[in-house]
Amino acid sequence: MKKWTIVVPAALLVMASALTACGGGSGSGDNTASEGASNSSGKKNITLTYMASQGWIKDAEMELAKKFEEETGIKIDFQNVPSDQYFNVLKTKLNAGEGPDIFGGQSGYSEITMNYNVESNAVDLSDQEWVQREDPLSVEQLTANGKVYALTIWDTYSSFVVAYNKKLFSQLNLDLPKTYEEFKNAALTIQKTGVTPIYEPIADGWHHVLWFAEPGPNYEKLEPNLYDDLNQNKKKFVDSQAMLDSLTQFKEMYDLGFFGDNVLSDTGSDTVAKLGSGQFAMSLVAQSVAQEWSDQYDDYEIEDIGFFPIPLTDNQIYYINPGGPSKFIYSGSKHIEEAKQYFEFLTKQENLQYMVDNDATISNLNFPGLNNKYTAEQQKLFDSYPERGTDIQDYVNYVNPQWMDIGKDMVAMLAGVIEPIDVLKSIDERRESMAKVAQDSNWQ
Amino acid sequence: MNRAMYPFYFAIAALIVYSVFFVMPGLMGIYYSFTDWNSYSNEVHYIGFDNLAKIFDGQAKYLGYIKNTLVFMVATVVLKTVLGMLFAMMLNDGIRAKGLHRVMLFMPSIIPMLVVGLIFKSILNPATGLLNESLRTVGLEFMTQKWLTDLNWAFKSIIAVDVWKGVGYIMIILLAGLQSIDKTYYEAASIDGANFWQKLLHITLPLIIPALMVTTVLNLLHGLKVFEVVYVLTNGGPGYATDVMYTAIFKEFSTGNYGMGTALSSVLFIVMTVLGYFVVRLMSREGNES
Question: Which residues of A fall within a CB distance of 8 Å from B25?
Fold first, then answer.
């Protein structure tokens, strides 16, 4: 009797907490959009929540949002989520039916249909005026079954390239590397002077995957028809020697200490500071970083910073990614019209130009008729690498949705837990399970 | 039982609420773990033990998550109990400003885990963190580590942070237990010539068993349900080295694999129930024997 008086309540306690754990799942939903009451001045008293990954919402857009609020009374509540957690948070919210009014997402057919399930979670924007003006290649990335689901305002032509400290290169008599071997030797020479060759923010979880995915056009060049074979399931990632070489070379860079000691804790927000301090010689960055670098550090002029494409597998192709972080309107939002109004406002020609003019991270946007800010070095980059190609994730299905997983696999590879070939195997496994769920006929 | 003051039906209302909001969702969760329920399709198919087979066949990384969770649980139960007991005994008697010390040790328990995590993320940063900087300043550079990104240290660091935060709470419960022990036992034992260890072994420990039982059950549950500390410190990294059951469940849910998510929850539920039952039984038996 006495024993049971202790055992039963304690067992119930255990069960209750385990069961609530099973049943629970959704995070706390905070759909803070207040009710849309118009006040006397004709302005609406509404707050739209806009959730995105860190770095997607530019400062210039926040300035524009203030103007938008002045004009319409509609306030935009920006919620920036750290990039290594963003997709978990977003998808949990979408799956729980508690999405924000506007959410940020990546582009590409498999991304928007598999990851965000746009056909049920996002509003069809095909009839919006700006769709006609936006770069058709960008629009295509956000289209599913003939309907446009998101607005992309992004510097899509400015691909990620390796920015390098030209002064240091000329001091050390280093030439612009054209192959992986030349790149490796340059990095070794730089390393000997006490400067860490490359700043690589692996802690963000997504950035280091660029090293693998962006030389994609070169893999395709080395192994003709690779992209289509991957999409038709005639080939798997493990079958590609070029991809394996690329990962192996990336691992070698890590093992040689090119990224420094602290690389697994480094974050993208420090990139400019690290480059500007002279501790690091290169970094894989958006081209606008050169402007920030020279603006913030007096020792550097804009001409002191040069660019070249990722040289893994001897890549010399400048890749194109017509997509980019995009804005979706959540289908469950109470303020769909107001969100559309915000998109209309952002895409006005003068506001797009305002973003180009006032944001250091933007050189041009994917809308016509804007005055771009390309620097001489950027122009030189475009001229020096005339060969173009699309990166893997914008062409090959089921890659972009697993971007963060690939990132984790690559870290496990760097840590020596798995081999480069295992990274490719994991990619294939995830592609297969996604394709099956999507009932892709090539996987039947 | 026949001396009960109130009839059974007085409890019905509470039982209904409990069943609807706790038992039912739990049972539904167990049912869904046998399905392929996911966010990409509106149909839910019964797939038998496929999910469970996937967890235990060793192909995927799930067994690693289970192992990590168990290691975390055992380590935190042992460390928190031993350290909590030590602090409780030290602060029970014979120390100056014991109130202040108790508050200091209890303080971490009232800070939200996310805040603690963010603070420690900065303290443990290998390049700029307080810990490595301090070690370097006092000439102990060889002891500096990449606390959260080195495979050998990441999980230990997580356990250490969790113990740092949780030990004060355990200490308070054990302290209450210690204070309820009648001092005359110790006086009598002293007169009989018992030393510190004999008193600890034959008076303190037997009499503190009920409190230890409470702390063990609490630690056990907390250990199995660990989530925030891992999520905020490493998010399961480097690679998948520090992923535990709940971070895995969270990821399954966020990628829309509800069936697999509930299957993992169900496994955890069974482990918790079995472990909890045996721990409570074992400890209540010891308590009765004494």
Answer: 19-20, 22-24
Whether A186 has a pLDDT exceeding 90, the answer reads yes
- Interface contact B92, partner A, CB < 8 A: no
Contacts of A81 (CB under 8 A, 6+ apart): A51, A52, A53, A54, A89, A90
Q: Are A443 and A435 in contact (CB under 8 A)?
A: yes
Query: Which residue(s) pair with A198 in the sheet?
Result: A282
pLDDT given for residue B286 in this prediction: 60
Q: Is A92 on the interface with B (CB under 8 A)?
A: yes
Residue-level pLDDT at A24: 37
Residue B258: name the closest of B28, B48, B38, B26 by CA.
B38
Beta-carbon contacts of residue B15 (< 8 Å; ≥ 6 apart): none
Residues in chain B, pLDDT under 70: 1-4, 285-290
Each residue's pLDDT tens digit, B129-151: 899 999 999 988 888 888 988 88
Contact A14 B29 (CB under 8 A): no
The CATH fold of domain B58-289: MetI-like fold (1.10.3720)
| B277 to A14: CB separation less than 8 angstroms, yes or no | yes
Those of residues 115-174 in A touching chain B at CB distance below 8 A are 117
pLDDT value at position A436? 79
Q: Are B287 and A6 an interchain contact pair (Cβ–Cβ within 8 Å)?
A: yes
Q: How many helices and strands (H and E) does chain B possess?
A: 14, 0
Condensed to tens digits (0 to 9), the pLDDT of residues A139-153 reads: 988 998 899 999 999
Task: List the domains of chain A with CATH numbers.
Answer: 37-156+322-366 (3.40.190.10), 161-320+380-443 (3.40.190.10)
d(CA A298, CA A49): 39
Share of chain A above pLDDT 70, in %: 90
CA nearest to A80, candidates A98, A115, A104: A104
